[in-house]
């Protein structure tokens, strides 16, 4: 039985020499389901421990550990299927504590023969994990544990292992016939905390697998081979003068060793600066131990921090680093003056002038609210003569004079200047400091000064000239005398005041009118000047309060408009009276009609300033003169004639097209003026009509569309004189064929034919002038047809470039008509043979628009009319043509 339990101890390691007391990290023990009292579970093997001072402690009360390391049951213990775990702690005088976890694993016993012999169950082939220690120093290979298969009890077997730790890392090996597992080299737990090995067992004779493969766990026990390390920069800030216990910051560290061991339990220690700072040994929090930290004395403090594992044991590993603790500034220093007092002098009457710079010193951090200064005038500036600012670049106080000082009133001014910071003081009992400043005012020869800057007099308007208003005098500030001072006006807009140069008396010079635009709210200002013997001057203002008198009567608007009434209600209007005077010389007004009024009107007061004017009788439309009486509160007023216009209205306004039935002088003149102009025109017409027409030239310029137009050009630049035409003999006899011409209106077609061609309905081009049948011509016989022939000849002359006035010379000469007829026929034949290049204008032109207002149509073209004998259009020609016809008829 003792051999069975001895074999059940899974892991008793051979521990190499180390620097501290050490027991295995874990221990797995196979135990029965029921453990009796006194049963020895296992024995703790400690290494490198002081046996005299070694103390073993067991935390499970059902077991105890004896001085030799044996673990014994104190009471009956039942082990569940899941096992049971408790811990054992070992510690000697070195202070290092080592802990081991003991895992109880239950197994079952069964009889295999009649002799009652016990045999291990199949769980034997599943041993608990094995443990090895990191950083073993050898010699290697070092035995770890023996693996035993259940199949080895009945037959001969051999073992083999595989896995990355065997095949790749070459860290483990196993004897095939014994199952002894050995480690072949040192192992780093931080790199390989555990290994998994595959163990196989085979029958030695057949080579067949004798049991199931086994996954064997090998755990690497930690050794304290890593010193703790700092994880953050050790930079901290804390306010100066802070209270004791103020947290500065926290030091953070880490350790690569097994976190389940004391190898990573770090202890924090300050190696210096202990008079100012402290650090918590377990958390690493740095705090202050004094309230006297002064930034102005020392801004930065360097302290050395040590971190040590094994909870600070002597044999623990450690590291050190320097922590920088910076003190932040607080306003614990008020600004101080470089002098105890200041004195400065200034001339009287000076203003807006810098008179003193006051430097200060401050130990606080520059360019912060704790350092920037503000200056206050605590006393001496009751009249507001001074101002003090801060120079932001130098932090100095700048003292200014903003209002002039008067030497005669105060020769010296004592100021007290206080300096403070933008931020309030803290962490100190000091107070803001102040300094006296003496300002000496030096005397300056000044001009005279009036008794007061302004003086006020009351005066009634319209008082007589020369009336004394009052006196306004000045004195010399130094002598306090008025001797030798002269007085003048600088500004008197209305020249209402005269000034006595020697005495300063003010008298009325012109009529004072309260209603003048120079008076504002009853106030009139006069600016005065005083001049002493040295030509120095002083100024003052005289304020005249103008008292009102009743010098204005109420005024009614001179022109009013009244809308015409009807049979049921007569018209009325509201008017407002105005009075430039003020109360009690103004409203309320009284309104009335004079006793001798015509009875057509009545007036009734509406309010203090307005009244209603009513019609009493029906009145005609037009202008009416109405007498009205308006009086003020004092009864002042007189009859006023008011012009009232009665008219028909729409929306309260007279209609625009309405005319008055009465005409004034201007209306009558406006009516007579057109008659005078008409009379003048008749005289002019009579004058022209009585003038001898034989000696009168007809001016045919300026004709417009719809009338005959003058033309004497055959073409551009070619002037033709009809006198140059030779007359054939055969044309002088009788009547001339084709001599009488007509403007050819044929049909409704519109075409330009002057000097060109005409288009007939058959599409054949013919000469633009069509001749009529032969007519007899006899001297002294003029009818409508004769006038028609004359007009046609005139038009043809224009079209052919002939001067139409040539016709007038021979209006009684039959020979002239024959000559013109022959020339026109030759001209037309010539046009038929000429090319279009020369006579570019002698071609047909279409006109889409013939003009408006002329019966004859456009003169510029010969519109075809169906009726050749209709000559009524000649009756509508302008007066010049008719005059021409009349001349022809008389001649």
Written overview of the protein:
This protein has 6 domains: 2-221, Immunoglobulin-like (Sandwich), CATH 2.60.40; 229-328, Immunoglobulin-like, CATH 2.60.40.60; 336-442, Cadherins (Immunoglobulin-like, Sandwich); 449-547, Immunoglobulin-like (Sandwich), CATH 2.60.40.60; 559-654, Immunoglobulin-like (Sandwich), CATH 2.60.40; 705-890, no CATH class. 10% of the residues lie in helices and 33% in strands. The protein contains 7 helices and 60 strands. The protein is mostly beta strands and 891 residues long. The strands form 21 sheets. Strands 1-9-8-4 form a 4-stranded mixed sheet, with no helix packed on it. A hairpin with a 4-residue loop joins strand 5 (63-65) and strand 6 (70-73).
Which key phrases capture this entry?
disordered N terminus, mainly beta, 6 domains, 891 residues, Immunoglobulin-like, four-stranded mixed sheet, 7 helices, single chain
Helix/strand layout:
Elements lengths: L1 H7 L17 E6 L2 E2 L4 E4 L11 E4 L4 E3 L4 E4 L3 E2 L5 E8 L5 E10 L3 E2 L6 E2 L10 E4 L8 E5 L10 E6 L1 H4 L4 E3 L5 E4 L10 E10 L10 E8 L7 E2 L4 E5 L7 E4 L2 E2 L12 E4 L6 E3 L5 E4 L11 E9 L9 E11 L7 E2 L4 E6 L5 E6 L1 E2 L11 E7 L6 E6 L4 E6 L10 E10 L11 E10 L6 E2 L3 E7 L7 E4 L2 E2 L10 E6 L5 E3 L5 E4 L14 E9 L5 E11 L11 E5 L8 E5 L13 E3 L8 E5 L4 E6 L6 E10 L7 E9 L1 E2 L2 E2 L10 H25 L23 E3 L2 E2 L21 E2 L14 E3 L5 E3 L2 E2 L12 H17 L4 H5 L4 H20 L45 H12 L1
Parallel strand pairs: 1-9, 12-18, 20-27, 29-36, 38-45, 46-52
Antiparallel strand pairs: 2-7, 3-6, 4-8, 5-6, 8-9, 10-11, 13-16, 14-17, 15-16, 17-18, 19-22, 21-25, 23-26, 24-25, 26-27, 28-31, 30-34, 32-35, 33-34, 35-36, 37-40, 39-43, 41-44, 42-43, 44-45, 47-50, 48-51, 49-50, 51-52, 53-54, 55-56, 57-60, 58-59
């Amino acid at each position: 039985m003792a051999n069975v339990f001895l074999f059940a101890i899974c892991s008793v390691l051979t521990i190499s020499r180390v620097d501290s007391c050490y027991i295995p990290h874990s221990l797995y023990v196979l135990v029965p389901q029921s453990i009796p009292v006194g049963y020895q579970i296992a024995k703790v093997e400690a290494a490198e421990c002081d046996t005299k001072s070694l103390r073993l402690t067991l935390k499970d009360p059902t077991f105890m550990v004896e001085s030799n390391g044996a673990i014994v049951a104190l009471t009956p213990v039942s082990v569940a299927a899941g096992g049971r775990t408790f811990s054992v702690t070992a510690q000697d005088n070195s202070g290092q504590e080592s802990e081991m976890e003991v895992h109880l694993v239950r197994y079952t016993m069964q009889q295999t023969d009649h002799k009652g012999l016990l045999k291990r169950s199949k769980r034997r082939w599943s041993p608990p994990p094995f443990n090895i220690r990191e950083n073993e120093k050898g010699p290697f290979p070092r035995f770890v544990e023996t693996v035993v298969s259940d199949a080895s009890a009945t037959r001969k077997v051999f073992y083999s292992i595989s896995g990355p730790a065997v095949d790749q890392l070459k860290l483990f090996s196993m004897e095939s016939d014994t199952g002894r597992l050995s480690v072949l080299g040192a192992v780093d737990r931080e790199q390989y905390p555990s290994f998994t090995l595959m163990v196989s067992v085979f029958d030695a004779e057949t080579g067949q697998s004798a049991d199931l493969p086994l996954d064997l766990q090998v755990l690497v026990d930690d050794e304290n081979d890593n010193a703790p390390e700092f994880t953050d920069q050790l930079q901290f800030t804390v306010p100066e003068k802070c209270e004791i216990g103020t947290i500065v910051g926290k030091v953070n560290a880490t350790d690569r060793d097994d976190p389940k061991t004391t190898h990573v339990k770090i202890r924090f220690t300050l190696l210096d600066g202990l008079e100012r700072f402290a650090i918590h040994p377990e958390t690493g929090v740095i705090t202050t131990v004094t309230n006297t930290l002064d930034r102005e004395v020392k801004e930065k403090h360097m302290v050395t921090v040590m971190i040590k594992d094994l909870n600070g044991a002597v044999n623990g590993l450690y590291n050190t680093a320097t922590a920088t603790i910076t003190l932040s500034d607080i306003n614990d220093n008020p600004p101080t003056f470089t002098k105890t007092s200041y004195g400065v002098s200034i001339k009287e009457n000076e203003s807006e002038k810098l008179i003193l710079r006051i430097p200060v010193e401050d130990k606080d951090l520059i360019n912060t609210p704790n350092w920037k200064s503000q200056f206050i005038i605590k006393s001496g500036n009751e009249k507001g003569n001074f101002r003090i600012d801060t120079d932001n670049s130098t932090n100095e106080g700048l003292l200014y004079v903003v209002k002039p000082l008067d030497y005669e009133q105060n020769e010296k001014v004592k100021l007290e200047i206080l300096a403070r910071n933008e931020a309030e003081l803290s962490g100190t009992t000091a107070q803001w400091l102040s300094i006296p400043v003496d300002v000496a005012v030096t005397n300056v020869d000044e001009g005279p000064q009036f008794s007061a800057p302004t003086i006020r007099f009351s005066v009634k308007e319209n008082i007589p000239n020369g009336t004394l208003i009052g006196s306004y005098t000045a004195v010399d500030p130094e002598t306090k005398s008025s001797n030798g001072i002269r007085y003048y006006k600088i500004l008197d807009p209305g020249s209402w005041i005269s000034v006595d140069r020697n005495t300063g008396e003010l008298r009325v010079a012109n009529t004072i009118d309260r209603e003048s635009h120079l008076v504002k709210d009853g106030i009139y200002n006069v600016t005065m000047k005083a001049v002493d013997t040295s030509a120095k001057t002083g100024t003052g203002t005289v304020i005249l309060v103008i008292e009102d008198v009743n010098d204005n009567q109420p005024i009614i608007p001179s022109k009013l408009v009244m809308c015409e009434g009807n049979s049921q209600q007569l018209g009325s209007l509201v008017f407002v009276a105005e009075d430039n005077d003020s109360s009690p010389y103004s409203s309320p007004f009284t309104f009335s009609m004079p006793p001798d009024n015509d009875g057509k009107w009545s007036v009734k007061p509406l309010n203090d300033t307005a009244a209603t004017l009513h019609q009493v009788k029906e009145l005609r439309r037009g202008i009416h003169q109405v007498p009205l009486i308006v009086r003020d509160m004092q009864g002042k007023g007189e009859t006023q004639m008011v012009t009232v216009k009665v008219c028909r209205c729409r929306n309260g306004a007279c209609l625009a097209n309405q005319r008055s039935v009465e005409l004034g002088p201007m209306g009558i003149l406006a009516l007579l003026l057109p008659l005078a102009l008409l009379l003048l025109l008749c005289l002019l017409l009579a004058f022209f009509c009585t003038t001898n027409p034989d000696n009168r030239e007809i001016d045919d310029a300026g004709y417009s569309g719809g009338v005959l137009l003058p033309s004497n050009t055959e073409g551009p630049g070619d002037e033709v004189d009809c006198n140059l035409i030779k007359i054939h003999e055969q044309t002088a006899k009788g009547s001339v064929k084709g001599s009488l011409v007509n403007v050819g209106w044929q049909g409704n077609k519109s075409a330009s034919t002057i000097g060109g061609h005409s288009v007939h309905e058959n599409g054949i081009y013919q000469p633009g002038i069509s001749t009529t049948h032969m007519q007899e011509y006899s001297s002294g016989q003029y009818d409508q047809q004769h006038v028609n022939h004359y007009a046609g000849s005139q038009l043809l002359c224009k079209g052919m470039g002939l001067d139409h006035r040539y016709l007038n010379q021979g209006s009684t000469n039959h020979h002239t008509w024959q000559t013109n007829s022959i020339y026109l026929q030759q001209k037309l034949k010539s046009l038929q043979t000429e090319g279009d290049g020369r006579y570019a204008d002698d071609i047909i032109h279409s006109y889409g628009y013939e003009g408006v207002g002329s019966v004859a149509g456009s003169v510029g073209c010969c519109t075809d009319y169906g009726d050749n004998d209709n000559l009524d259009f000649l009756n509508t020609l302008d007066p010049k043509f008719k005059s021409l016809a009349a001349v022809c008829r008389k001649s």
